[in-house]
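Sample 1 of the test manifest.
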Amino acid sequence: MTVAVRMTGIAKRFGDCVAVRDGSLEVAAGEIHALVGENGAGKSTMMRILAGIYPPDAGTVEVAGGDVTGWSAAQAISASVGMVHQHFMLVPTLTIAENVILGREPTRGLAIDMARAEREVAAAAERSGFRMNVRQLVRELSVGEQQRVEILKTLVRGARILILDEPTAVLSPPEVEELWRVLRALRDDGGTIILITHKLDEVTEISDTITVIRAGRTVARFPTAGTSPASIARAMVGRDVVLAGDAPLASRKATVPAFAPVLDVRHLVVAGERLSRAVDDVSFTIQAHEILGIAGVEGNGQSALIEAIVGLRRAPSGEIHIAGTNVTELSVSERDARGLAHIPEDRHLRGLVLDYSIADNLILGKQRAYQNRGGALDRGRILDDARAAIAVADIRPSDPMLPARALSGGNQQKIVIARALARQNFVLVAAQPTRGVDVGAIELIHARLRAARDAGTGILLVSAELSEILALSDRVAVMYGGRIVAIVPRSEASEEMLGPLMTGART
Amino acid sequence: MSDPNAELMREENPSTVSESMVIIRSRALRDRVVEAVLPPLVALLVSIVVGDLLILAVGQSPGAVYRLMLEGTWGNAYGFAQVLYKSTTLICTGLAVAVGLRAGLFNIGAEGQLAAGGLAAALVGLALPAGTSALIAVPLCTVGALVAGGAVGFVPGALRAKWGAHEVITTIMLNFIVLALLSWLISTRLRVPETLHTQVIRAGALPRLSAAWSGFHGSAANGSIAIVLCAAVILGWYLFRTRGGFELRAVGLQPEAAENAGISVGRTWIRALTISGALAGLGGINFVLGYEHYYEEGFATGAGFLGIAVALVGRSNPLGVVLAALFFATLSQGGLAINALVPKQMVDALQGVVILAMAASVPEVRRLLARSRGKR
C-alpha cells in the first residue's frame, strides 16, 4: 500500500492546554480514513497540523513520502492537501463560481474573466459529480449545498488529500447520503479522504480504516471491516458506554394520567427574517412526565420556536401557556419564575458568558437569589453551591474559579445543563443538548434529561440528531418550513418514516 | 494493526492529573497578571523611544528634557499637587468611559457630561444660602453634579435601548448640543458681565490641599480628590461585588447570554450610561467646588476625550484608571515644565504616541504571549 500521510509522535500545546501529546496517523492512498475521538481529544488539532495551519511542537509529518513537518497552509494547498472546516468560509452574497475562484481569480486585463471562471468551475463540478448552478448565490443554498461548494473549492485548488472536519454535523439524512456518494466517488477516483467525526454509525458506514484518539494520544488503529460501534466507543472513551440507540425504549415507570399540559402552545406565529413566517401556526401540548421531540432539518423554524417559547422573541399571534398560566406577554425572567428552564442551542452565544468563571456561569440568571441585604453577591455561597454542582454534574476541571472558556465543549455544556436542572421545573426546553459533545457526556446528559422527565418535568427536545430524538422522546413532532407537519407517538416513529417528512418529500 | 483493547490499558496516573490542575491554576493567574501589566510597560517603552526622537528632532537632549519633566512633576511638592489636581478630573472621565466599556458601550460624551456636572454643581452652590455648612453644601453640590451628568448620560442609553441608535453617534452629537446649550445659558443668563463664568458660589467650596500642608502652596489641588477616589472604590465594589455589576459585565461580555438569563439588556445599557454620565459629571466639582468656585465655559476642555485614553490604558479597571489618570496628568503637567526647552505641542504629540502604542500593544502583547506559551 502507498502511504499518503504519515504523522508520528505529534505534540501540540496551546498555552497551558495540551491538545495533542502523542498523536500518530497513517493513511493509505485511496482510502477513506476516519479519525474518531471524544471532543477535545485532539482530532481537529492533528488535522490542522496536517493542513499547515499550525506547526507541531514535536513529531514529524510526511505527505506522499516527503517530510513536510511545519509547512504552511499555502504549501499544503499547493501539495494537494485541502481541508473543509466545520464552519464554512463562504461569502453569502457571491455566487458559487465567485466563491470558488476567490483568491485565485482568472483575469483578462485588469478585470476578472467571469465567463472563464464560470466555465472552469462548472466543469470541475461536473467532473466531481456535483449538480449545481454555478451562478447561484451562496446565501440561497442549503447547508448541504454550501458544504459541496466548500469541497469543490478544495478540489479546484487541486486537492488529492481531502480533510473533512465533522462534515455531517449540519446535514439532514438525505444530504448525508449525498455526501457519502460524493466521497466514495472521490475515493474511487484515487483521492484520499480523512474524515473527522464522533458519530460511530457514520464511521462504520463510510470508512475503510479507523484511527482513535483519546486525550491527545493515538490509542488504536484498525480496519473498519469487522468492528462494531460499541468497540469503537470503548476505544474512544476507555470504558463501556451505553449508546443512545441501544438504550431501552420507554423506560418510564408508569403511564401518567393526563393532567392539564405543562406547556400549551396555541397557533403560534413568529416573524422570520427571510421567510415571512419563521414559525407558522404551530400548536402542540406537552404533559408532565413527557418528552416531546421535534425532529427536523435545521433552519425550519426550530430556533424561532424555541426563542418564542422562552421569551427571547415576540410572537405576533398565538398563545403560550405554562402550567395553566398565559405567559405570552411575559419576559424571560418572569417565565423562568413560573417554572420554565432553557438549554439554549448555542452555548457560546446564549448559554455561557465565556469569560465568567464556572461558578458565575452556574448562577447566571439566578443572581438575585445570591444577593445579600447590602446589595453584594454572597461569594461564599456561590462557591459552595458551585462546588456541589460541579461534583454532581462531573464538570472537569473542577475548579469553580476557572473561566468557562478554559473548558472543553462537553464540560461547558454540563454547566449549562446543571444550571437548567438545578431546580424542579414544569417545562424544560432542551435545544441541541448534546451538540458537539462526546459520547461519554452524551450518555450523562441523556440520563439527566430522562431523570428530569421521570421527576415530572415536561421536556421539549429539539435536536438535529434523529437518533437522539428517537432515543429520548415519548412523542415525536416533525417541523418543516415553519410548520409542525406531523406528531406521532414514539412507537410509530422511525428513521425511515421521519426522513421524508423532514425534507418535505411527504406531508 | 494493534489491538485496541491492549492499548486501552494505558491509563493516566490520577495523581499527576490533580497536580497538573494546580499548575494550570497558578499559571492562569500569573498569565493574567502578566497580560495586565505588560502592555502598559511596552507602550511606555515605545513612547519613550519615540519621545527621544521627537526631542532630538527639535535639537534638545532627551535626558535633560525628561529630567526637567520629572522635576517639574513628581520632583517637587507644587508639581506633584498639580498632578493630583489634573488627575482628579481625568479619574472621573476615565471611570465614566470604563463603566461604559464594561457594559459593552463606548461613551464618547464625557466632555458634555463633565461640563453639565460642573454647571450643576455651581448652580446648587449659588442657590444655597451663604454660610451653609460645608457638610451639607458639598454633598448637595456633588449630588447636583452626579445628577446632571447622569441625566446627560441617560439620553443616549435610552436611545440605544429603545430604538437601537448607536451610542457612539448619539454621545458625540449630544456633546455639541449640551456644550452649545451651556454656552448659551452662560452668555445670556448666568455670567458675570465681561466674563464667561458665573458668580462665585455661596456655599459648597472645598478646601485646597495647601490648607492642610503649606508645601502645596499655590496649587489647585483640593479635597475633591478624596471624593473622587471614594467614587473609584465604590465603582470597583459595584462592578465586581454586586448583582448589578455582575449583570452589567455579563451584558458587556455576552449580551445574548445575559438576555437568555433574563437580564434586560436595554435596561442595563441605560443604567450603565447613566452611571457613566454621573461619574463624568462628578469631575466638574474639581474645578467648580475645589479651584475657582465658579463655573466657567470650557473649564475642562479635552478632559472628557482624554478620559477615553485613560480608560483604555487603565484596562477599564478602577485601580488601573486611577494610575492611568496620574500618568496622563503627569504628562500634561510635565509639558508645562519643559516648555522652555521644547514646544508644548510636542507633549501633545507624545500623549498621542502613548495612546497609539497602548492601543497597539494590547493585542500584540497577547499574541506574543500566546506564541511563547505555545512553545513552552
